[in-house]
Amino acid sequence: MKITPSILNADLANLASEVGRISNADMVHVDVMDGHFVPNLSIGLPVVESLLKHTDLPLDMHLMIESPDVWAPQYAEAGAQSVTFHIEAARAPVRLARELRRLGARSSAALNPATPVESVATMLDEVDMVLLMTVEPGFGGQKFLDLVLPKIRQLRKLIGSRDISVQVDGGVSTETIERCAEAGADVFVAGSAVYRAEDPNAMVDELRALAVRACSH
Ligand SMILES: O=C(CO)[C@H](O)[C@H](O)COP(=O)(O)O
Ligand SMILES: [Co+2]
């Protein structure tokens, strides 16, 4: 059970110190948006390269961009531990997943809420994680979409005994994390829930405890 806070809702002008407030986290979720794949712009490679110098936590890149085939490998080369590209945007997802692994990163494919899990069925041996969006991508602070819960169960079934993480991203909080864990998710992105909390580290611990308890039921 891993908690990976999204820095989208952090103070982006003080990124190094903001990441210091989540030292209990398992990874740092970094949302890259290009204004084309999603209607929002965030940060890109130069900021990620700088951030890597200021944290020992692994970076969990979430690339909401067009042409991930071109850009995603550069994040692996920079030193990100995990690189997630959107299946809707990739031209050659199998080749891209293999390239990410060749560069030493964990490879991961993300699915928008309306994208069926079957879209990754034939390439499960190429990925270490599948990210299921539980909001429409583009903005933090949105309401969790319950309609994704059956997809989490379907994906777990498809994965079977393979060692693949299922990440949920969007609207994950103390209200929603247990349902995700019960359905089969094991990596949880939480942006506003963590950064709007008075004590982000305490919220990370609380979320992890809720997920562990829900899963052991
Ligand atoms: O990918 C994302 C948005 O596209 C973010 O990771 C996500 O929205 C996290 O923020 P919150 O927990 O506030 O929903
Ligand atoms: Co994200």
UniProtKB/TrEMBL annotation:
The keyword Isomerase applies. Substrate binds at residues 6, 62, 138-141, 169-171, 191-192. A divalent metal cation binds at residues 29, 31, 62, 169. GO terms for molecular function: D-ribulose-phosphate 3-epimerase activity; metal ion binding. SUPFAM superfamilies: Ribulose-phoshate binding barrel. Coiled coil: none annotated. The active site is at 31 (proton acceptor), 169 (proton donor). It comes from the Bacteria. CDD domains: RPE. Its cofactor is Co(2+); Fe(2+); Zn(2+); Mn(2+). It holds the Pfam family Ribul_P_3_epim. It is an enzyme of class 5 (isomerase). It catalyses: D-ribulose 5-phosphate = D-xylulose 5-phosphate. Binds 1 divalent metal cation per subunit. One of its GO terms (biological process) is pentose-phosphate shunt. Its EC number is 5.1.3.1. GO terms for cellular component: cytoplasm. Pathway: Carbohydrate degradation. InterPro entries: Aldolase_TIM, Ribul_P_3_epim, Ribul_P_3_epim-like, RibuloseP-bd_barrel. Keywords: Carbohydrate metabolism, Cobalt, Isomerase, Manganese, Metal-binding, Zinc. Catalyzes the reversible epimerization of D-ribulose 5-phosphate to D-xylulose 5-phosphate. Belongs to the ribulose-phosphate 3-epimerase family. This is Ribulose-phosphate 3-epimerase.
